[in-house]
Amino acid sequence: MINVTRFNDKKFVLNAELIESIEETPDTVITLTNGHKYLVKETLDEVLDLVYDYKNKIFSAVINVNNSNY
Length: 70
Hints:
Layout: E1 2-5, E2 11-14, E3 19-24, E4 28-32, E5 37-40, H1 44-68
């Protein structure tokens, strides 16, 4: 899950696993696999960084659990 901001300054949480595409048109539009589109204040690069951070946390937790079993 990533925290992003609508243009009315309301923050919301988006399931990063459902992101199909991210476009700058010039505003950032995130399209999910279910067809829903979200217009957010963050740039494309900022959204990518949020997704990368989220994925790193998930995979780090999996690696830590697997390493603790040895």
